[in-house]
Amino acid sequence: MQVHLIDGTYELFRHFYGVPAAKNAGGHEVGAARGVVSSMLGLLESGATHVAIATDRVIESFRNDLWPGYKDGDGIDPALYAQFPLVEEALASAGFVVWPMVEHEADDALASGAAMAAADPCVERVLICTPDKDLSQCVEGDRVVQFDRRQRLMRDEAGVIEKFGVGPAAIPDWLALVGDSADGFPGIRGFGAKTAAAVLSRYGHIEEIPLDGTEWDVPVRGAARLAATLRKGIDDALLFRRLATLVRDAPVAASVDELLWSGPRDDFELVATVLDAPDLVPRARRLTAARRPPG
């Protein structure tokens, strides 16, 4: 079997900015939530069987207590933010397993779900469906892969190394040095993507990088300057790595069997009405009928 783990927050943002706005009969914006549910039914129509969708019930997480500049809900369009609870309820009504995160982030749920699924010998492949570079740290060989559904791009472990210059285990270190503007931490001054990759491909992790530039045997410019900068900012670098390291024990399903889609709840027709999307109901019915055991 294959397991599909979906970044629901990314999907909601993608549809909000990628499809026309749409208000239901009550005057509420529902276009993005409707688009996500339709997209997930499309995933089932393409053959997916075991699916879980991770969401950020709130944007803030435990990381905001570690770094005051970490991403929060500031600047999010209210029409988008209002659809956070709507998309969770709509997806659950459609029969999907939803992991809404509060203390953790959706990325942590995806990492935890990937670890759970990869431990099951019946699982042939785990597809983490998001382009977010943070999730590259969870890739394992060609069994746990990252899949960008929009670009139809699959990235296995060799693909991670090709893109970032380091393997999955060093992605948190790479992000710590380079910084991540989407998550709100700046990295260490002077370390660009290529420099960070060259240094980490030699030394592995931040704490193993010599803090004396004369000890570096890496062909990068300004080794002495970079080492001095890292020496002064080593505490920040280790903190940024902690921010970038995904949790593998967030509250998710206990087994892959729980992720099997078996049809929508009884209230799905009502939810489809709220979404002003009556066409979703016959699609879900056809999928349910197709998966019903014969006899």
Explain this structure.
Helix 1 packs across helix 2, helix 8 packs across helix 9 and helix 8 crosses helix 11. The protein has a six-stranded mixed sheet, sandwiched between helices. The chain is an alpha/beta fold. It has 13 helices and six strands. 43% of the residues are buried. The chain starts with a strand and ends with a helix.
Per-chain topology:
Elements: E1 2-7, H1 8-18, H2 31-45, E2 50-56, H3 63-66, H4 78-81, H5 83-93, E3 97-101, H6 106-118, E4 125-129, E5 144-148, E6 153-155, H7 157-164, H8 171-178, H9 193-203, H10 223-232, H11 234-244, H12 268-274, H13 280-291
Parallel strand pairs: 1-2, 1-4, 2-3, 4-5
Antiparallel strand pairs: 5-6
Short structural summary:
Strands 3-2-1-4-5-6 form a six-stranded mixed β-sheet, sandwiched between helices. It is of the alpha/beta class and 295 residues long. The chain has helices at 8-18, 31-45, 63-66, 78-81, 83-93, 106-118, 157-164, 171-178, 193-203, 223-232, 234-244, 268-274, 280-291, and strands spanning 2-7, 50-56, 97-101, 125-129, 144-148, 153-155.
Biggest sheet strand order reads 3-2-1-4-5-6
What class would the helix/strand composition place it in? alpha/beta
Total of DSSP H or I helical runs spanning 4+ residues: 13
According to DSSP, the number of beta strands is 6
Helix and strand pattern: EHHEHHHEHEEEHHHHHHH
Radius of gyration using CA atoms only = 21 Å
- Report the principal-axis shape: elongated
Helix coverage percent of residues?
A: 40-55%
Model regions low in confidence, pLDDT < 50 over at least 5 residues: none
Compute the separation of the termini in Å. Answer: 23 Å
What would the average pLDDT be, to the nearest integer? Answer: 94
Which oligomerization state do the chains in this entry correspond to?
Answer: single chain
Strand content is 5-15%
Major sheet characteristics:
6 strands, mixed
